[in-house]
Amino acid sequence: MNSEWRRRFGNPDAVGGLVTIGVCLFLEWQTLELPATSAIFPQMVLGLASILGVLMIAQGLAKSRAGDAPLRFFKNRRRFLIACGMTGVYVAGINTIGFYTSTAILVPAVSVVFGYRKPLAIAISTAVFIAGMALIFGAAMNYQFPPELLLRLIRGTGHV
Amino acid sequence: MFDALIEALPAVLQTANLVSIVVGVVMGIFVGAMPGLGATMAISVLIPFTFGLDPLVALGMMAGIYNGAMYGGSISAVLLRIPGTPAAVATSFDGYPMAMSGRAGEALHVAVVSSAIGGMVSALSLMLLAPPLARITLAFGPPEVFWVAVFGLASIALLMGKDPVKGLLSACIGLIVSLAGVDNITGYDRFTFGYLELAEGVNIVVLLVGLYALPPAFGLLEDADLKMAVVGSRKLAGSLLSSIPKMLGYWKTWVRGSLIGIFVGILPGAGGSLAAFLSYNEGKRAAKDPDSWGQGNPEGVAAAEVANNADTAAAMIPALTLGIPGTPVAALVLGGLLIHGMQPGPMLFREHPQVVYGFMIQLFISAALLLAFGGTLATRIFAKVLHLPRPILAAMVLSLMVVGVYAINTRMFDVYLMFGFGLVGYAMERLGMPLAPAVLGLILGEYAEFNLRLSLRMSRSDWSILWTRPICLVIIALIAAVFLWPLIGGRLARRKAARRNHAGGQP
């Protein structure tokens, strides 16, 4: 029963349709407190999206019934999840230890984790990239990134 | 019309503008050459860096990136048989066999000259066709503009992807995102969920970078291959100038391909890959030796490249005049215009003539510059990019995405939002949903709602104003045609297949 249910509704199209309808219902509920003039266009769009969600589920179920091979959602699930995790840590790192430091960690870490392990090439690529970023965005374009923890510690102004 | 073009010329020829075009062309070739990245990704990542620039300088850079990336796609198509852009698929048919037989240099020379010719002809068509079309569209009132927005969304959603349901759903996603923020008329918050950062709505760059740059970056990491197998990159000998006389015999292919590219470019949702395939097929059909096509015939490279570059500026004709982009890249350029405070549509020609005509000239110049920067030496340098290991390339792209988005408001909220949209974009790609309708939905959402409200105010809430005016009826008929086309096209294809099977079954 469980495997039959998964075969039918585990189709990515059916799941996508269900998620669409769920999100639309949630957003529709958000529009209930709006005055009519503000709500009319969002409700039109959400109504259309809900109908399309139902059609997507129907397409997914029809594909399952026809015995079509289910679409593979991930090219490589393990690699995707690692990429997501590393990106999350990188973004969190920018806020805490600074942009350049995080990037200096990200480039070699991603290289090593995803199988490229030539230390000299990684070191040169990272150094050239960070220097290029600092020159273009820091010096030339004067972009203000979150402060570097390392610099704050060296200057004695860091709060760890 | 030509007065406006001539008046825009001095501004375009200023040093800053020319430098921006050169930088754009070089960056475009560089990014376009990388498989999996391409023109859409190049522009989406690079648009934030044009914020602080003068609008014309920024558009010059975008014009350069656009033309550069369309040509850049051919470098990896020839050397790797991995097209850098979808439009370069047909280039690999003859380009790769040429590289395999030691003629990579010749293939790239043909590609760059054909790309430049296609791009220049396309820019001329934009200069000739866009201004009169813009004058016609000045007759449009709010109800017509509302339907034009619906037509644009419907045509992109229905014609761009394989599945109309998914295309329309993608457009709805963009429309919903466009509604986030404080409603300008009533002052009510819509879909802000209490976040002050969303009060002004979602910046288009956040959506663009997330949708277009994150999925290919993750794609590079998901792929187990560390490097791409380059062939023939060391055999890029001879100068471009010495190769040109040999190519003059391709003039018929160039004319045919340019016309096909312009026609396809004007059609919303068609895109450069269709133009390249059509041109390749027509070229092969007209060739004296069609069997040599696909085996390394340089004319095949010329046919594909001239058409996919002739599509570039032509796609801007509906984009600039009606606000309907013909390709995803044109949608991104529209986003770039919005960032610089210019709403695409007929009024653009009246309110910012110097910028819009200047942009047309910049498209022409950037196409011509391909000859200077896409020659042998440059191509040899760009080909080196292909040796960069995928994980390093992906990490650098992720970092550039952060820089570009963080720079908009110097706040991390936009970066989080961008990665959120990136994951949505990844899911959409994996489900076979086209991304361009979502971008267009964000661009046109506010525009469509504003004109719908204005129409209802004009008619004192009488909805019939939307279907009683003659131009509205014409646009509604066009929308109906766009909706019916997949059904009719599918039925015709089935009938054709059945007839072929029937003929094949007969003894």
Your description of this structure?
The complex is a heterodimer of chains A (160) and B (507). Chain A contains seven helices and no strands. With 160 residues, chain A is mainly alpha-helical. Chain A has two domains: 2-65; 77-155, no CATH class. In chain A, helix 2 (12-31) packs antiparallel against helix 3 and helix 4 (77-97) runs antiparallel to helix 5 (99-113). Chain B is an all-alpha fold and 507 residues long. Chain B contains 23 helices and two strands. A two-stranded antiparallel ribbon of chain B has the order 1-2. The mean pLDDT of chain B is 82. The chains are: A mainly alpha (160), B mainly alpha (507). At the A-B interface, helix 2, helix 3, helix 4, helix 5 and helix 6 of A face helix 8, helix 9, helix 19, helix 20 and helix 21 of B.
Spatial separation of the terminal alpha carbons of chain A: 54 Å
Number of domains of chain A: 2
Helix content of chain B: over 70%
Coarse morphology of chain B: globular
What Rg of chain A, in angstroms, do the CA atoms define? 24 Å
C-alpha geometry of chain A = flat
- Please state the average pLDDT score of chain B: 82
Major β-sheet annotation of chain B? 2 strands, antiparallel
Over all CA atoms, what is the radius of gyration of chain B? 23 Å
Distance between the termini of chain B: 63 Å
Low-confidence stretches of chain B: none
> Which chains share the greatest interface?
A-B, 60 and 54 residues
Main beta sheet of chain A: strand number and arrangement? none
Strand fraction of chain B: under 5%
Instruction: Compute the number of strand runs of chain B.
Output: 2
What string gives the helices and strands of chain B in order? HHHHHHHHEEHHHHHHHHHHHHHHH
Q: Into which percentage range does the β-strand content of chain A fall?
A: under 5%
**Structural class determined from secondary elements of chain B:** mainly alpha
Helix content of chain A: over 70%
Q: Count every helix of chain A, treating DSSP H or I runs of 4 or more residues as helices.
A: 7
